[in-house]
Amino acid sequence: CRDTVAVATARSISLLRLEGAADAPAAAYAFGGVFSCEMYGSSEQRDQHDELYTEYVLRCRWGRTVDATRPWLVGRRFSEFAALDASLRGAYPSLTFPALPSSYVLFPLDPAVVEEREAGLGAYLGALLRDLPELLKTRHVDEFLQVSARIREVH
User: Fold this and answer.
1) pTM (2 decimals)?
2) Which of 11, 32, 53, 76 is the most exposed, fewest CB within 10 Å of its CB?
3) DSSP three-state, residue 92
4) How many other CB atoms sit within 10 Å of the CB of residue 66?
5) What is the dihedral of CA 145, 151, 152, 155, to 10 degrees?
6) What is the pLDDT of residues 4-42, one digit of tens each?
7) How much is the mean pLDDT over the chain?
8) Which string of DSSP letters, residue by residue, matches 105-123?
């Protein structure tokens, strides 16, 4: 069964309902096409001081149509999610935002903590795109997910 998409006008950003895909990522009609993003996983990385940290990997997709979407991966640290959240809350104080997972953990590299944060960050991003799809076109979210940059690369 193929997923079907109901789209709005070309200049708007509206949430798409993906039928037949209960666990499908949140999708929006934006930037003249179909955009979706979901948590893809996580990996350990080393910073410039050779310190370990967890990078949470997002899988984004964009295309003029559902069948023509192209994926890209975006890796972000927890602190970058927190910075995005803070900048959005500061720029749009009248909006109600989803909650981020707690930033206070004793062992941030512990596999159970990473797994819990991965799920929480995925839920945060999904709720953000589902409940506030208009934020996708903001500089904050666009740069965080590298949407405009990737669209320029493929078109």
Assistant:
1) 0.81
2) 11
3) coil
4) 18
5) 170
6) 333 332 233 334 434 334 455 667 788 888 999 999 999
7) 83
8) -S-TTSHHHHHHHHHHHHH
